[in-house]
Amino acid sequence: MSYLKPLFSHPKLPKNKLGYTLKEYEGSLSTLCAGCGHDSISAAIARACFELSIEPHLVAKISGIGCSSKTPTYFLGNSHGFNSVHGRMPSVATGANMANRDLVYFGVSGDGDSASIGMGQFVHVIRRNLNMVYVVMNNGCYGLTKGQDSATADQGSKNKSGSINPFQAIDLASMAIELGASFVAQSFSGDKQQLIPLLKAAIKHPGFAFLNVISPCVTFNNNPGSTKSYDYVREHIEATSARDLVPGKEEINVSYDAGKSTHVELHDGSEIQLNKLALDWDPEDRNSAVNALQKARAKEEILTGLLYVNTDWKDLHRTLNTTKTPLNQLKENTLCPGVKTLGQINEGFR
Amino acid sequence: MNPRINDFIVRFANVNGTGSASANYLFAKTVFRMGVPVTPKNIFPSNIQGLPTWYEVRVSERGYLGRREGIDLMVSVNPQSMAKDVLNVKAGGYFIYDSTKKLNPDYLREDIHYLGIPMMEMANGAFEDPRKRQLLKNIIYVGALARLLAMDEAVVRTLIEEQFHGKKSLVEANYKALDLGMDYVEKHYSYPLDFRLEKRDLLKGKILVDGNTACGLGAVYGGATVMAWYPITPSTSVAEAFEGFCKQYRKGEGGENNYAIVQAEDELAAMGMVIGANWNGARGFTATSGPGVSLMSEFLGLAYFAEVPAVLIDVQRAGPSTGMPTRTQQSDLLAAAFASHGDTKHVLLFPATPKECFEMTAESFDLAEQLQTPVILLTDLDLGMNDHVSDPFYWDVKRKYKRGKVLTAEELEGIGKFGRYLDSDGDGIPYRTYPGTHPTKGSFFTRGTSKDEYAAYTEDGAAYKRNMDRLTRKWDTAKGMVPAAEVNLSSQSGAVGMLYFGTSTFSSEEAKDLLEGDGVAVDSIRIKAFPFGKEVVDFVESHEKLFVIEQNRDAQMRKMLIMELDCPPKKLVPVLNYDGMPITADSIRQQIIQSLDPKKTSNHELSKTAV
Ligand SMILES: Cc1ncc(C[n+]2csc(CCOP(=O)(O)OP(=O)(O)O)c2C)c(N)n1
Ligand code: SF4
Ligand SMILES: [Mg+2]
């Protein structure tokens, strides 16, 4: 069961530009296990939307099947959501996006949902550069079916039943870059500081924004020997970049170490503030991004931050040259060629 | 002997990929323009180049548009299939071949006539460009047919001009080839043959078009804006037609597209996109064939249970599996009607003509949105990929799209708590909202899991059952909304009936006439949709014996009737054809006579009964 949270707001809660408090960005009470990493990501999504003053009803949340895919019920209660079928969120999101280009699309998936059953759709939604935020809540296992290894489980990692995973892991972030995703970031559910700005940047990104978020499954994959447990991730994390998103037209109120930072400008004038740690790595260079990921992997580190971004590539609507008016708002007068034209068409078949 | 006018069959035997299609079409279209009913059928291989392909044209003054057996004239330009082609000619018929090479004596039959025409030799002599020679060789045989069958020469010439948009050099080359064929016949043979064409005015207002083109156009008129598809014969040309018409009629002033077409990575994705688009308030559709329907099943169940509209055009081909991918069948009925697991069933429509392909495609969007469920249009390769003489496409000036029960922001303001799955009207159809409608009201979660009336997840068995029962109510509502069956109670006795649908229609109607000639009067009903309406129930109940005519092995329509109407199986007699070729009137007649009186039909002669 999902429970509706009581709508009680403290008068002193801070409000955003729209006059909403964070409450307006929350959803039903979560039914996930206490401590599940997925809940932290849901909270971060709510926070990011709140901070960007996004109208909740202008967001569409679409997911596949899994514990992770349940989470859209737990954030943005005033948005429409669609919990579709296992592994097929990208296609539903594609159709929805084609119908109305004006909404913000949140696709939520799991590592089983994306890296196994849904791998084909994951690959192709990247290829089309659909304008959406694609979040994988990656716990290295199938939470909802009780803890089987997933395709992102690291080779040699131990699951709850004690067996060692003999197969190589699929590295979704490297793959996404390789496939030409125009925005690729990696983070950890326990790191709000990093996750919220990345989510904000992803929302602002005018194309496909992929976030691979390591999200420990406390019930089935938080044991010693697992490489997706809280302890393991905390010990092996290495942050690379993305300090904050600076919305256009707004005061910059965070200070940066000038010598180590770089900007990425987004379509609406916002900028992502990046902090370069590795000198040989440039977030607009696919090769160095892939290199950095490979090197971190060799050192058994998890590289987090904004790994790659490219704001020049056309999203699917631009590629298809669709009209600026959302297709779902076009009426008969635009859509139906009419009786006279039909007469001419008939004539052509005589 | 009096010549046989406007009643014969010509078959062209060609090699796939040699440009024969436009020459053969030229022949069929000439017959059409002469005002004579004509039915061309492509019989083609699953291959791009090299394998045999046939084009069969039935000419029927009486307007019978189904296929029939018995070839009167074979135009054989494919050495590969010649041995078989010779055998397929009816006794007394004609065999035209390219006499550039001597005919193999093995192919000689006593009972048919041979008309050798040195097509290759003439083409080589007249045209320089080797590629042109190949193409124009085909026009040479059209020229020969023009004389042999008394085709209207002026019509042929006009059609050639139209085809090349008056491009002088091409038109002249084609004329030259045409003349070569005509001259050769004039010099060497007596013409016209004892069966031939004669101008008529039987096709007033009619059009000649294939069903897939009609479906593509129907989707444009029906207001589809999102199309997702994955290539598969014989449905591909639906997507191509839709795109072609969109380019003509769906461009904004700045050249922007008022549509989006996505070639998906597979049929699963295509159906997912269609569902996403419809969920978001756009009319989306896809077209596929059997293998695609199998892949779409899980999604179809989601759309049924989550109540999202979707339109699927299934252009059926011969299954199972890859089956005979370029042959026709009506064999996806059960797969489509019950696609997906659990208690799932879908609305089906059965067009029989291009006009109905157009209308029913447009209507399927209304039905899908009004009923908030998938609607599957079951056409087939025969209807989809062959040209058919059809009534013209019709659109009512006053027609408005029926978008179903969708609440606007103002309406949401006016109601209390929004319940997505509440049956407020008692017809089983709830109200829905599009994403983005209202800042605080009307949002809900769409899911394939069980939910209560307010769209909240629940595992409460009573709530689940209430929802399933409401879906049954909706199904009952659908029975009164889908196109009604066409009933013909002309037999007086009312004892025996024929039931058919889709492309079995033409041959069934012809068989009905044949049976009348045999002294057997039958009533008939043409099914246009599933679920079956009251008129179907009444027809089945009131007849003692019903012949269910369909093109599959397992008598799938018959099974659906038994399941849905709970009628005694014994009274429904299957009349089937499943060899991949369209069913013929003669076969229907024979099966029915056999069943009514097994003694009567021991060994009847084809050519006599085939009108
Ligand atoms: C077609 C299909 N096959 C199998 C399942 C069963 N199933 C439900 S969730 C799931 C795995 C989910 O794993 P993941 O996407 O990683 O989500 P998590 O629960 O770990 O967040 C599976 C196999 C299903 N729902 N549908
Ligand atoms: S099983 Fe694991 S993934 Fe699922 S809710 Fe519990 S902790 Fe989260
Ligand atoms: Mg998982």
Automatic annotation (TrEMBL), chain A:
Keywords for the protein's UniProt record, in alphabetical order: Oxidoreductase
UniProt cross-references to Pfam families, sorted A to Z: TPP_enzyme_C
InterPro entries: 2-oxoacid:Fd_oxidoreductase, THDP-binding, TPP_enzyme_TPP-bd
Ranges of residues in domain Thiamine pyrophosphate enzyme TPP-binding: 65-213
Name of the protein: 2-oxoacid:ferredoxin oxidoreductase subunit beta
Automatic annotation (TrEMBL), chain B:
SUPFAM superfamilies cross-referenced by the UniProt entry: Pyruvate-ferredoxin oxidoreductase, PFOR, domain III, Thiamin diphosphate-binding fold (THDP-binding), TK C-terminal domain-like
Keywords recorded for this protein, A-Z: Oxidoreductase
Classification via InterPro entries: 2-oxoacid/accept_OxRdtase_asu (IPR022367), Pyruvate:ferred/Flavod_OxRd (IPR050722), Pyrv/ketoisovalerate_OxRed_cat (IPR019752), Pyrv_Fd/Flavodoxin_OxRdtase_N (IPR002880), Pyrv_flavodox_OxRed_cen (IPR002869), THDP-binding (IPR029061), Transketo_C/PFOR_II (IPR009014)
Coiled-coil ranges (or none): none
Domain Pyruvate flavodoxin/ferredoxin oxidoreductase pyrimidine binding intervals: 218-380
Keyword set includes Oxidoreductase: yes
Sequence ranges assigned to domain Pyruvate/ketoisovalerate oxidoreductase catalytic in this UniProt record: 17-183
Pfam family of the protein (one): POR_N
Iron-sulfur keyword on record: no
Name of the protein in question: 2-oxoacid:acceptor oxidoreductase subunit alpha
Organism whose genome encodes this protein: Algoriphagus oliviformis
Lineage: Bacteria, Pseudomonadati, Bacteroidota, Cytophagia, Cytophagales
